[in-house]
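Pilot study result, target chain (174 residues):
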Amino acid sequence: MRKTRGWSLETLADASKVSRSMLSQIERGQTNPTFATLWALTQALEIEISQLIGEAAAPEDQVIEIVDAHNVPRIRSADGHCTLYILSPPEATGRSEWYRLLIEPGATLNSKPHAAGSREHLSVLSGEALVIAAEVQARGGAGDTLRYRADVAHSISNASTGLLEAFLVVLTDA
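Predicted structure:
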């Protein structure tokens, strides 16, 4: 889309506030952008996120929208051991986001602080999660929900020998 518009990397970087090096890595398939980065790009390009990921936008009067499993956007960690399936609609970004989270045994998903007042709610479906937020640790197993500050550095680790599967909800004070 950038090239189709005749934009340079610098033009898109200025419009989106995403660094040129990050844009270059995304275009070369060397990194997976965060949902926030995707949102910044769609705002700069003045498009719906569905256009960026190749899915047609649902008409506003559609009673039920079905997103086929293979079209659910996903983000993989740089090491490839953590996958976030983006379940929330694009228009909820910045207020509330929800994900299906899979973490392989022994792997960790590290996150930088989100916006002030942000909180995460991790509901464990299978496995055991170790959450660290502001250097405080807590563990939760299947059926447990851990709620913690996300406006501080935080991480979710798989503390079990099998796959950790969880739902992750991120809420930001408006």
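One observation from the pilot: The chain is about 20% helix and 35% strand. A full batch analysis is planned for the follow-on phase.
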